[in-house]
Amino acid sequence: MKDEPDLFAELDAAEDIVTGRVEAVETEWGWREPDGSVFETNLSEAAARAIVARIDSRPVTLVRRTVTYGPWEECP
To answer: Which end of the chain lies in a sparser environment, N or C, as judged by fewer CB atoms within 10 Å?
Structure first.
């Protein structure tokens, strides 16, 4: 995982919010295992950080992602 946030993804999400193409935005937190698998949590940032800090049996990395939800669209 890179140290810097993905600014293009964040700008795209911000643009979608401002233009009204998004109904909701959520940030999901989790951790990446050494084998590359990601475990998501339905917790706050503080709770996810606490879990990562307690995992001392293996090196894990805190991760997050921004999820945007658009409006429902009719399909023909």
So the answer is: C
Task: Please write the tens of the pLDDT for every residue from 32-41.
Answer: 999 999 988 7
Cα angle, residue 7 at apex, residues 65 and 64 outer, rounded to 5°: 15
> What's the burial of 5, exposed, middle or buried (CB within 10 Å: 0-12/13-18/19+)?
exposed
pLDDT above 90 (res 7) = no
Q: What is the DSSP letter of 46?
A: H
With 0-12 CB in 10 A as exposed, 13-18 as middle and 19+ as buried, what is 48? Answer: buried
Single-letter amino acid code for the residue at 32: R
Per-domain residue ranges of the chain: 7-18+27-69
> What is the rounded CA–CA span in Å between residue 37 and residue 46?
21
CA 35 to chain centroid: 19
